[in-house]
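During the no-cost extension, the postdoctoral fellow (Dr. R.K.) reprocessed legacy sequence entries with the updated structure-token encoder. One reprocessed record is reproduced below for audit purposes.
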Amino acid sequence: MLRILPKNFSFVDIETTGGSFKKDRIIDIGILRVVNNRLVKTYNSLIDPEYYLPPEITRLTGITQKELEGAPTFTQIKDNILELLEGNIFVAHNADFDYRFLKTEFKRRNTKFSAKRLCTVKISRFVHPEFQRHNLDEIISRHNLTCDMRHRGLGDAKVLWDFFRVLKKSYNQKFVKAIEQQLAKPNIPLNLNPKILKNLPEAPGVYIFKSDNAPLYIGKSKNIKSRIMSHLSSSNNSSLTQKILSQTTTIVTHQANGELEALINESMLIKKLQPIYNKKLRHARQLVVLKLIENHSTYFEVKPEVLDIIDPNEMSSILGVFKSIKQAKEFLTRKSEEYNLCDKLLNLEKTNRHCFGFMLGRCKGACCKKESFLRYNVRVKEAFQRKFKPWPFEGPIVIEEAENEDKKTKHFVDKWCYLGQVQDSSDIENNSVPSGDLKFDVDIYKILASFILSERNQKSIKIISDKNLASQTYNAQFDII
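Re-encoded structure tokens follow.
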């Protein structure tokens, strides 16, 4: 832990043309330089991004294209900015975002920039764990702060300085611990070469802690270096983390072109490599599913089945996925009791007569046709919500991720199955995808469903007709070890 808290901080806020630090540009920056806990300099400037300004950014910030055309470029003011940041702790709200944008702008101009960072979102969460939201508007309201220029660089930077002083005065002990936690020196594993840490990418992707050639733990992050350094923080004293670090001899990283690619790669690698300490996604090969057998002229039946893989064409009939028959039967028993269903039709009992529940008065007689099949089937529908959402497209799709402006990742997806990456959408023609290549994975489904069904991601989805597919344009293999 830190013995003496730092006294030199630079409170920073930027406004940008968008969320991609590779593609978008800074248009406004505010910096408050604090030395020996005293504010010594305030800086604010609009910046000509030499780039298109989306109208939604103008609506949010009030900054117009005309104002930017008369502003200096980042090249013209980079030395002023660097002077205000050098030697100080870099403080921002969601610090990784502001830091990566600035680091990228400096890198474009062959200027090195590096600083220790403090994130006021993390500080707020540590000091006030009882609150769910920690955005800047919530912090302003919660601590009775004022902001004359919200969503502008200088206005938001001043809020951070005011927030810092409020916490120091009113919540000093927690505030100190929150800073210590973020700035604690890394606990470098004994057998790990420290040079590996210096070369970690500050980009989205997957990282692997390894002991010689054996994978110990696989994770993903929007910022690989930041996440790994948080694992190595001396304030991270969990027994699991210490076990992993004590055995780590190397760290392998694989950059991704966006969060979707990182999530998919993480899931695939965990299943492929079976790392010792990733238990959540290390599913056994076989899964137990509950299938709804629908016959609209008789009673619906629910049947457990043990499968190696799930056929994407049968997903609409699946009511649930379980790790064992016991778990599936416990689920069915609860539904039977809650909705007065028939244990015979749920395959909980094998009998040629009525089920035991009918004798107790719980089953209404579907097993012996004492109840109308129409009424029974309605209750079955009410009891079971289908596990998987229907595929919302007529054919396969390509999802584009473009965090890096020099490269677009194109994910090829069909019926919730991930088929790999295509080189170019124009290459997809004249053939159809072999049905045998469609392999459904529950965890990949959850990742894809979360992305595809989000309204903000619709622009990145391209629907492809079955008639315009080439089975040779994708590669589902993944091997970075």
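Residues 429-436, 467-481 have pLDDT under 50 and may be disordered. The CA atoms of residues 74 and 259 lie 28 Å apart. The remaining legacy entries will be reprocessed before the final report is submitted.
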